[in-house]
Specification:
This protein has 27 helices and 31 strands. The strands form eight sheets. Strands 6-5-9-3-2-12-15-14 form an eight-stranded mixed β-sheet, with no helix packed on it. A five-stranded mixed β-sheet has the order 17-18-19-21-20, with helices on one face. A four-stranded antiparallel β-sheet has the order 10-11-16-13, with no helix packed on it. It is globular. β25 and β26 form a beta hairpin. 41% of the residues lie in helices and 20% in strands. With 853 residues, the protein is α+β, with helices and mostly antiparallel strands. Bound molecules: phenylalanine and zinc ion (ZN). The site of phenylalanine has 11 residues, from β20 and α2. Belongs to the peptidase M1 family. Its cofactor is Zn(2+). Its EC number is 3.4.11.2. It is an enzyme of class 3 (hydrolase).
């Protein structure tokens, strides 16, 4: 059993291992409950340590050791000291120069409900080793700085036996590229394969294979297409080619995360591979494209160059997210992509950074590394790369990346290595920039303006954020893209990138005839909170005239947020001006339909709660829900005569295509339908539901009907139509949990929790129902606290089987301190109840401990 207080691991304690590993031979004799793994590992001394002699210390968890030997000599029971975290062989039995370790262990894939290590999903064997799952397969130096060559032999009945690298013969694999154990993978089962081919720009022919369960072969076209586009894009934009003759993807139904970049053998949550027009929405297609690219891009940013230790996780994740965002932008629309990325950042990372789970992009300590696959490491990590690129310029960025690949290929690196290539190529000192990796919290940038006699002074300040996280922090380097507008909408000065690298800085602009309207932080050039007091006329002016699409959207959103906050605080407001400006944009045929759809989508209830917090008010989730509904209705009325036409005009004719243009038109069409439904008693939504020939429209119509309380028939029909399609059934659970009106939601999710198809051990299904409910603020935060109790019950139940997914989902309580005292008491009662669970995992224990601290 684990010790009562699990140890904290610290970056400052990093030490190289006493031994390196050259080669690993693994043999698997597969059996559902008793798989035997035999390993033969060649170790040699780490000359840099010079502080021996060393015991042999190997990581291992839940392993049954059957046999071990060193250099062919069997080790007796008392020569191998096993404990809960691994084993040790005393130094005097370990040839210090180098030796061959052999051992056989037995493991139980079927009993592995945590989905880390080797486990079974629907009768198929698969692995998940990042971050520390390999130690559940065999004893090893399970740390990313130990890179070795792997040979793998799999014995089993299954017709498909896969591992990393090149296939030697059935069940036998060799990976020529040294890799850390977290990139190891094995898959075995009755799988079908969909095959294609790609020729790299230097002429290497690569076989591309996607493995799926029988019956899913026709759902891989889009993933395959996205893979080929990703491979080409990485060649064109980063000069990176694929480096094996085979690239495989496997779709797995039970998976804790999205997907995993194992060398040559990516393993995917099936929801991020499988799609047909009838079963997947436009959003699903977009996610598939992004994640296929993300995992493929890891081949260079993550695999060829990996992380020295897990504190450096953002080295591969931030960079790879940045790369997949740019890829998606190139495939679709950069301005829409930017807005969506910022929406995600604000929805997930800003709250994380403002609450008890806040940590730097490069954390300095952890208890359980699985808890650090966060929005901060991923999304803020990507923003930091974007700022770096902006600061050094596009060409220098590319040159620095080239140098990074050249200098560090085959190595396990740190953020220092990454920063250094930029310093070497640009000649800039990036010491201060590095604070973005070291300091947590979201900087708040506030603004003062002064205009006299043709001189415009703009003063920018960076301050502690509202949560106080940034008190005593050093000033960071904040690039603020800035535009200047005249009253006629023209720009008297060129756009500039102002660098705020002190607590306060004043920028002076001469020769202006009038005070300009300033457009700050264009393109969201830094992940900060901009505290720029503007009156509604100024906002409206930017909403109508800003040439920067991001700031145009941002201005509209700012107006909506102000209105919604006032409404949620019970003030009578008239949204007519705003609705009128929205109408102009919604009907502007010169604008991208996707952008227009984003404009018509009001800020989420959570975003409204955050904004109220910034204004010093305590959010009331029910009042926010009502306010949002009321403003939607105001907008709908203002657009009443346009909506039916817009809805009809945006219809996409011909066979369904998931491309950006068609998806953008559907998005606008469905945004119009959402508004129209508030006026026509859902008549058009009913028609669309019963007549839809694609999931995007069917699902959007279902959502509208459920949120209006008119979904009963459609819910039944949807179930009957899709009960055999697991991924569609996930949607059925999620949409009811997330959009049922707050008064009814708890009863609905309780009943669904008893449904025969609620297979709660499947992470996708669990997240759909429990996560769907917990991310609907007015339902989850119901005043009597029964929403909290319901979620806590399920988290306690899941923790016993799957700590990783449970701990992640505890994040739904991360914003608890923003609510009123009564709710805070109700929540902390539930958090304490979870904390008292006798068998609580280290994963969940760490998160709950922080939430309560
Ligand atoms: N490395 C994976 C990715 O971001 C995420 C992951 C982490 C998957 C841990 C599984 C377990 O692409
Ligand atoms: Zn990743």
């Amino acid at each position: 059993m684990r010790p009562s207080t699990p140890p904290t691991i610290r970056l400052v304690d990093y030490q190289q291992p006493a031994f390196w590993i050259e080669k690993v031979n693994l043999k698997f004799a597969l059996h559902p409950t008793a798989t035997k793994v035999t390993s033969e590992i060649t170790f040699h001394a780490n000359a840099d340590r010079g502080d021996g002699p060393h015991d042999l210390r190997l990581d291992g968890r839940d392993l049954k050791l059957i046999h071990a030997s060193i250099d062919g000599r069997d080790l007796a029971d008392d020569e191998v000291l096993c404990d809960a975290e691994g084993l040790s062989v005393p130094a005097d039995l370990v040839p210090q120069e180098g030796f061959t370790w052999r051992c056989t262990v037995e493991i139980n894939p079927e009993g592995n409900t945590a989905l880390e290590g080797l486990y079974m999903s629907n009768g198929m064997y698969c692995t998940q080793c990042e971050a520390q799952g390999f130690r559940k397969i065999t004893y090893y130096l399970d740390r990313p700085d130990v890179m070795a060559r792997f040979n793998v032999k799999i014995e089993g009945e299954a017709p498909v036996l896969l591992s990393n690298g090149n296939k030697i013969n059935h069940g036998s694999w060799q990976d020529p590229w040294p890799k850390p154990a977290y990139l190891f993978a094995l898959v075995a089962g009755e799988l079908e394969v969909v095959e294609d081919q790609f020729t790299t720009r230097s002429g290497r022919d690569v076989v591309l294979q996607i493995f799926v369960r029988k019956g899913d072969e026709d759902k891989c076209d889009y993933a395959m297409d996205a893979l080929k586009r990703s491979m080409r894009w990485d060649e064109e934009h980063y000069g990176r080619e694929y480096d094996l003759d085979l690239f495989m993807i496997v779709a797995v139904d039970d998976f804790n995360m999205g997907a995993m970049e194992n060398k040559g053998l990516n393993i995917f949550n099936s929801r991020l591979v499988l799609a047909t027009p009838e079963t997947a929405t436009d959003a699903n297609y977009k996610a598939i494209e992004a994640v296929i690219a993300h995992e493929y891009f890891h081949n260079w940013t993550g695999n060829r160059i990996t992380c020295r230790d897990w504190f450096q996780l953002c080295l591969k994740e931030g960079l790879t997210v940045f790369r997949d965002q740019k890829f998606s932008g190139d495939m679709r629309s950069h301005s829409v992509q930017r807005i969506e990325d910022v929406l995600t950042l604000r929805a997930r990372q800003f709250p994380e950074d403002a609450g008890p789970l806040s940590h730097p992009v490069r954390p300095e300590e952890y208890i359980e590394i699985n808890n650090f696959y966060t929005a901060t490491v991923y999304e803020k990590g990507a923003e930091v790369i974007g700022m770096l690129k902006r600061l050094v310029g596009d060409e220098t960025y590319r040159a620095a990346c080239d140098l990074y690949f050249e200098r560090h290929d085959g190595q396990a690196c740190t953020i220092e290595d990454w920063i250094r290539v930029f310093e070497d190529v640009s000649g800039q000192d990036l010491t201060q920039f590095k604070l973005w990796y070291q300091q947590n919290g979201t900087p708040v940038v506030s603004v003062d303006e002064d205009f006299s006699q043709g001189t415009y002074r703009l003063t920018l300040r960076q301050d502690a954020d509202a949560s106080g996280h940034r008190i005593d922090k050093a000033a960071q380097v904040i690039p603020v893209m800035t535009g200047f507008l005249d009253t006629d909408g023209s720009e008297p000065l060129p756009e500039q990138c102002l660098i705020l690298d002190a607590a306060e800085k004043t920028f002076v602009f001469e020769g202006l005839t009038a005070k300009p309207v300033v457009s700050l932080l264009r393109g969201f050039s830094a992940p900060v909170i901009l505290d720029h007091t503007m009156d509604s006329d100024q906002r409206m002016f930017l909403f109508k005239h800003d040439s920067d699409t991001f700031n145009k959207w941002e201005a509209g959103r700012g107006i909506a947020l102000d209105l919604l906050c006032d409404m949620a605080r019970g003030q009578l407001v008239k949204g007519a001006n705003f609705a009128d400006a929205l109408r102009t944009i919604a009907l502007d045929g010169a604008l991208d339909p996707n952008f227009r759809a984003l404009m018509l989508t009001l800020p989420s209830e959570d975003a409204i709660a955050v904004h109220m917090g910034h204004l010093g008010a305590v959010p009331d989730p029910e009042a926010i829900h009502r306010a949002r509904h009321d403003l939607k209705k105001t907008i709908a009325k203002q657009l009443a005569s346009d909506l039916p036409e817009l809805f009809a005009a945006m219809r996409v004719r011909g066979p369904y295509s998931p491309d950006a243009d068609a998806a953008g038109r559907r998005a606008l069409r469905l945004a119009a339908l959402g508004l129209l439904s508030l006026l026509d008693d859902c008549a058009a939504a009913q028609d669309l539901y019963w007549g839809a020939d694609n999931m995007t429209e069917q699902f959007a119509a279902l959502s509208i009907l459920i949120s209006a309380g008119k979904g009963a028939d459609a819910i039944d029909a949807f179930y009957k139509q899709w009960k055999d399609e697991g991924l569609v059934l996930d949607k059925w659970f999620a949409i009811q949990a997330g959009t049922t009106p707050p008064e009814a939601a708890l009863d609905v999710v309780r009943a669904l929790g008893e449904h025969g198809d609620f297979n709660w051990k499947n992470p996708n299904r669990f997240r759909s129902l429990i996560g769907g409910f917990a991310t609907a603020p007015a339902s989850f935060h119901r005043a009597d606290g029964r929403g909290y109790e319901f979620v806590a019950d399920w988290l306690i139940k899941l923790d016993a089987l799957n700590p990783q997914t449970t701990a992640r989902m505890c994040g739904v309580f991360g914003t608890w301190k923003r609510y009123d005292k009564k709710r805070q008491t109700l929540i902390s009662t539930q958090l304490r109840r979870i904390q008292k669970t006798p068998t609580l995992s280290k994963d969940t224990g760490e998160i709950i401990g922080k939430l309560l601290a």
